[in-house]
Amino acid sequence: MGSAAGQSEGLHTCPMMTTEGVARLAEMRFVPRRMEFESLVRVLAEEHRVMEAGLARMKDASTRGDYDGVASALKELDPIFKQHIADEESQILRLLIGELGLKGAEAEIKVFQQHRPIHRLMQLISELASKSVPELTAEQRRLNDLFLHHTSLEEQGVFPKALVTYRELRGRRASRPS
To answer: d(Cα 149, Cα 154) in Å, to the nearest integer?
Structure first.
């Protein structure tokens, strides 16, 4: 299971949300998954739904005052989010910068710069949950809002632009004489 190819097996579908799948993700180093680019984009969009469901579980747990449930939901989300970032930044962003340059990928770079604040909020919420602090609800709302805005930008802007760029690159490569 040490190779990147071996790590990608079983991670390209959303059943990774099983307890075993989450535990396996937590043990991994987050190297980019090796899969066809268009499939990767579909998986990344699917993972947005998985993470949204995790955020909903976290919110429900918080509403019930179940701080252990909040921490548990975050523990499940953390490795998924980290793998997701590894793929987006090393493959999607790399393609866009490589083909369009920094100026051409400026908007996408700004979207991906939201990864760090999202992860910091996840860590803050985890800390607040461990202390059963009332500010938890406000921070969760901030995380949900930022995450939903972020995924909307990716799915409506970044991913379509990356797919067009990928297809253009693939077309140029296919039309080159061998």
So the answer is: 9
Residue 155 in any domain: the answer is yes
Give the global pTM: 0.80
Residue partners of 44: CB distance under 8 A and separation at least 6: 84, 87, 88, 92, 154, 159
pLDDT tens for residues 98-124?
Answer: 999 999 999 999 999 999 999 999 999
CATH of the domain at 19: 1.20.1420
Q: Which of 87, 141, 88, 143 is nearest to 111 (CA)?
A: 88
For 60-101, write each residue's pLDDT tens digit.
998 898 999 999 999 999 999 999 999 999 999 999 999 999
Domain membership flag for residue 169: no
Question: By CB neighbour count within 10 A (0-12 exposed, 13-18 middle, 19+ buried), where does 86 fall?
Answer: middle
Look up residue 161 and give its two tokens: 């632009």
Domain that holds residue 98: 4-164
* Kind plus residue range of the DSSP H or E element containing 54: helix 37-63
- Is residue 8 within 8 A of residue 33, CB to CB? The reply is yes
What's residue 18's pLDDT? 46
**How many domains are contained in the chain?**
1
